[in-house]
Amino acid sequence: MKQALLLLILALFFFSCQQSDPADAIPNEYKIIPRPIDLTPKMGKFIFTENTKILLASPDEELQLAAEYLKALFVEINTIEEGTAGKDAIVFELDASIENEEGYVLNIDPYEVSIKAKTAAGAFYAVQTFRQLVQDQEESDLGLMGVPCVEIKDAPRYQYRGIHLDVGRHFFPIDFIKKFIDLLAVHKFNRFHWHLTEDQGWRLEIKKYPKLQEVAACRDETLIGHYNDQPHQFDGKKYCGFYTQDEAREIVKYAADRFITVIPEIEMPGHGQAAIAAYPELGCTGKQIGTATKWGVFEDVYCPNEATFEFLENVLLEVMDIFPSKYIHIGGDECPKAQWEKSSFCQDLIRKEGLEDEHGLQSYFIGRMEKFINSHGRSIIGWDEILEGGLAPNATVMSWRGTEGGISAAKQGHDVIMTPTTYCYLDYYQSDSPKEPLAIGGYLPLEKVYNYEPTPAELTSEEAKHILGAQGNIWTEYMKTPEQVEYMAFPRACAIAEITWSPKEGKDYDDFVDRLSTHVKRLKNMGVNVANKIYDIKTSVLSGDGKGVRVGLLPKMAGIDIRYTFNGTVPSSESHSYSDAVYIEESGVLRATSFDGEQAVGNSSQLVFNLHKAAGKQISLTNEPAEKYNGNGPGSLINGVAGSNGRYGGAEWLGFEGKDFGAVIDLGEVMPISKVSTRFFNGKGQWIYPPKTISIGTSTDGETFSEMEALEVADSDKKIIEVEVGLSETKTRFIKIYVKRFGLIPNGAQGSGHEAWLFVDEVVVE
Ligand code: ACM
Predict the structure, then answer these.
(1) Residue 14 lies inside a defined structural domain of this protein
(2) CATH number of the CATH domain containing 591
(3) Looking at ligand 1, which atom is closest to the CA of residue 421?
(4) Residue to substitute in 166, 386, 400, 478 for testing ligand 1 pocket (most ligand atoms within 8 angstroms of CB)
């Protein structure tokens, strides 16, 4: 036994012989994002010295690229030479025995770092892992840059790991695009989906069509504030920008040097208003229109005539010349059919081609473009609307309106990239703090992104092979600057990186957040405007017990205390420490803040409770709300907390899609009531409409209700429509509410043709 211990001590001494500081005896920490498959900790550190060099065991141009990338990161690395082993060396070697094309083995020992990979891409990812470990050391005061010894065997879960950026709504300078690509590389993404054309601006130089630069790259002015703010106001300032072909090529190379493929998107047949403004003959009306100045979906779409196909084919020839990507994204989303319905040309074409309707015409359009792109050896990706009217034979589908499109495409044997709004739209609000900068809407906190599972459970293992991966989307209506893009992208893109790279097994949000707290420091040191939300308080008002309600507070993190007050004061490090749900049985304000010792960290939260007769009582619903907008269950409707009129509305609201809202509240005993009031969210730009009517019924036994006539709900410009129903001297135990939804969104409005959403909270009984 003693001998074994002695051997262990000797072994530790041997492996840690480059320790320069007693602090090195502390076990190493490895906070890598995305989480590697397999990590074996070791004692000791590899120390950079003036002799540190890179050795290339396999002479290979691409491997050299990965090595040069590493050398450029650290001035301490002097040379890149050929060689297979050596002291103070970082050895790069291609290893055919590694299975995954992008897999790697990184072995850090005190005197040598070994990077083995099947391809240079894998070596590049090893470099990214190594870099994170080095970055953490830069923060220590060891004086010497030491990298913790470790063995890591790693490979990605999905072959497609992407982030999208819309440069149509706002244009971003080329230097930022490079910085953005650098950040994608840090997270082992391998696709940059560059959304280059929009109604509000065409951003890629096309030499054959100069008016795309002169007209389509500009708009006269831009909407101020949110689309939902009425009346619309504009800034009166001309806004222009496009990338020259040389710049686009520079980006393609810059990304390729970082093992990232740039996938260009040229939108069709919708979202083409800027191009039609430049060349009105591309539209069905022939009218001179302008580049769009506000956000939304527009009726001016490409007409499926020969002039349009010739234009788009010529555009795509130049696009394919710039972008070597196998995939060319041709959009396909949100194409209103109103002009096609009215156009005799389109109606004739539908008859001539034996198509069913305008959806068939869209399918014909996409099918023709696919044929052209396939004939040039490339493949198309389209948003999931390309499923409507029949899928083009070789198309890959980007499933954004949910997962159904992806499931259906995979079942039809098509490849799929998952990017559902609910989990992957990084333009949604990431916290419910009133300080959040203006965003499009929605609510997508980090944890929700992290908990997304890209492969739908509905697929068989054979079908699941068609799920190539997932992508985070950054639509920039409300992001005017690079700083804002960074704020919205990070750290949520870190979560996308992890769900696309790391194995499903071992997924653990708390562990992710622990690593992220280190990673956020790295990103800040790299000059990234990170939205650090990990210490922000998240509240959930849980169901009531007939008298009061309980409130859960997060985050639960090692070393972090949540302190709260209910007496009007700002929480301090002396306030109540949160351990279990807080019980609220009177009106007042609950304030909570995270503390690291004495230090307040993250955003505080503040919840206003107005307890009324129904607060904390029982409620049952006629129709289930949508899973993604179900508050904390039906009890949210009567928990004393009103859905906020803040930027996105918050977790209190219950959202119904294509369903009426009906509920029965049980007050527990017969009591007098004089009014019932409730509130509806009015966000037409987000497809959320106030309802048509509301009716109330009362009952003492829960069986026979005396019901009043339905009242019309008046629409207005207000963001929250409040409705109050007076009931004179009514004694009741049960209250029935029925709210009839708006129905289909009218033509010309955002989301036209879809069922409007109905958002409700709170039902107040007095
Ligand atoms: C999309 O968000 N319209 C693809």
Answers:
(1) no
(2) 2.60.40
(3) 2
(4) 400
Task: Say yes or no to pLDDT of 547 above 90.
Answer: no
Question: Are the C-beta atoms of residues 162 and 192 closer than 8 Å to each other?
Answer: yes
Instruction: Assign 146 a pLDDT band (cuts: 50, 70, 90).
Output: confident
**How far from each other are the two terminal CA atoms of the chain, in whole angstroms?**
76
- Choose one of 135, 154, 173: the last residue of a domain: 154
pLDDT in tens, 637-695: 999 999 876 655 567 899 999 999 999 999 999 999 999 999 999 988 888 999 999 99
DSSP string computed for 145-163 = -EEEEEEEEE--S-SEEEE
**CB under 8 Å to 473, separation ≥6 — which residues?**
163, 164, 166, 193, 400, 419, 424, 425, 426, 427
Answer yes or no: do 549 and 622 share one domain: no
For residue 161, the CA-to-ligand 1 centroid distance in Å is 18
**Pair (39, 148) in one structural domain:** yes
Within a domain: residue 703?
A: yes
Q: Please tell me whether residues 569 and 629 are part of one structural domain.
A: no
pLDDT at 142: 46
Shortest-distance atom of ligand 1 to CA 400 = 4
pLDDT digits (tens, 9 = 90+) for 440-497: 988 899 999 999 999 999 999 999 999 999 999 999 999 999 999 999 999 999 999 9
d(CA 633, CA 653): 10
CATH classification of the domain holding 266: 3.20.20.80
> Does the beta carbon of 425 lie inside 6 Å of ligand 1?
no
Q: Environment class of residue 234 by beta-carbon count within 10 Å: exposed (0-12), middle (13-18) or buried (19+)?
A: middle
Tens-place pLDDT, residues 706-740: 998 999 999 998 889 999 999 988 999 999 999 99
Question: Does residue 333's CB lie within 6 angstroms of at least one atom of ligand 1?
Answer: yes
Ligand 1, pocket-test mutation among 383, 418, 419, most atoms within 8 A of CB: 383
Centre of ligand 1 from the C-alpha of residue 442, in Å? 14
Q: Are residues 584 and 717 both part of a single domain?
A: no
Supply the CATH number for residue 72's domain: 3.30.379.10
Tokens representing 138? Answer: 């830069």
| Residue 146 and residue 225 in one domain | no
Domain match, 310 and 370 both: yes
- The Cα 237–Cα 13 span in angstroms is 68
Q: Are residues 230 and 371 in the same domain?
A: yes
Q: Could you tell which of 333, 418, 427 is best to mutate to test the pocket of ligand 1, judged by most ligand atoms within 8 Å of the CB?
A: 333
The domain that holds 685 is classified in CATH as 2.60.120.260
Q: Which residue lies with its CA nearest to atom 3 of ligand 1?
A: 333
In a domain, 247, yes or no: yes
Q: Is 16 within a domain?
A: no
CA distances from 408 to 213, 358, 459, 464, 616 (A): 39, 21, 9, 11, 42
Tokens at 622, concatenated: 């006629």
pTM for the full model? 0.85
Domains: count for the chain:
4
For residues 518 and 501, give the distance between their C-alpha atoms in angstroms, rounded to a whole number.
19
State the sign of the Cα–Cα–Cα–Cα dihedral 204, 209, 212, 213: positive
Atom nearest to 398 CA in ligand 1: 4
Ranges of beta strands (E only) in 212-260 are 218-219, 223-224, 233-234, 239-240
- Cα 598–603–609 angle (5° rounding)? 105
Q: Which atom of ligand 1 is nearest to the CA of 334?
A: 3
Give, for ligand 1, the residue of 475, 476, 686, 754 to mutate: max count of ligand atoms closer than 8 Å to Cβ.
475
- Atom in ligand 1 nearest the alpha carbon of residue 425: 2
Select from 609, 630, 650 the last residue of a domain. Answer: 609
Are residues 663 and 547 located together in one domain of the fold? no
Domain assignment of residue 401, given as a range: 160-519
- The burial of 153, by beta-carbon neighbours within 10 Å (0-12 exposed, 13-18 middle, 19 or more buried), is given as middle
